[in-house]
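quick one
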Amino acid sequence: MTAAARQDEPVTAAHSAGGLAVACHRLIHIYPTASGDVVALSGVDLRISAGEMLALVGPSGSGKSTLVAILGGLMQPSAGRVYVGEHELSRLSSKGLAALRGATVGTVLQGAERNLLPYVSLSRNIWLAQRPAARLAGRRLDPPEAILDLVGLAGAGARRVGDLTPGQRQRAALAQGLAAGPGLLLVDEPTSQLDASGRDEVLAALAAVNGERGTTVVVVTHDGEVGARLGRAVTIRDGRVGAEGRDGRDFAVVAGDGTIQLPPETVASFPAGTLLEVDHTDESITLRAVAAPSSLGGDDGVARAGGEPRPSGS
Ligand SMILES: Nc1ncnc2c1ncn2[C@@H]1O[C@H](COP(=O)(O)OP(=O)(O)OP(=O)(O)O)[C@@H](O)[C@H]1O
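structure w/ adenosine-5'-triphosphate:
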């Protein structure tokens, strides 16, 4: 296809055949800065099945956006391995990463307007986003109108972003991210500017994308309700997977190096340096505090659970 291609000319590309699986192994990312290195990811172990929908939640600065930028091929990790489908991203050249961004992974940035050109129609926006995928050749992609229909914007192809409500804008941004038929859709804070009905429409659009196309969907959100509605919510804390919620139940997660992050409310009762005795059976692990940091020469008191901590060595 040439630069003079017409908008009604079919765009061809490797069509997404359902969703892509994702796997991160001990993923580390460090930003070098003038004032020293900033460790954004400190060993993320995470598996996402093909066709799964999940939320990445966690406090500000915990590393969610960094993880999404790596999954989206926007930057390479400092260490560790990350797979999207058959691609091991840290092995890809810059050309390989560009191809990944163009045809395999769709990324929707926070702030719907950042994803869309304001001076052309929604259809034209989507068609333009399909062109990098077209250069990689393959099968025919869905026409822009079909993608808009999928996200609940049927008949809106001629409209421009300025004509839309905030909820419609966010769904138009989703359509843009879906333009090339990606197997993985990454969406950063899609509901942060929306009221409850706008949020419901965006969640319905994501469910339609996932249900009808099988696309794997990862949503970064501060909204606990979004995490709950997606069924699986992975909490990133201090650059690692700290916990997981599944269908209303909360779980700690064993990392690849055998560590487990205690829930924040537990950390308050068991400060750093607390000695824990570990008992386990095939089905359970019991941690029992046997010595507080203060009894080991620290200056910290410790709240006690599972009995009064004994002095070290008793
Ligand atoms: N370009 C950068 N240069 C230096 N440090 C960065 C850069 N981007 C992020 N960081 C730092 O990396 C850490 C993780 O940031 P990141 O943006 O990934 O977290 P986040 O969980 O997405 O936060 P938020 O929810 O506020 O967007 C933070 O300490 C942040 O200050």
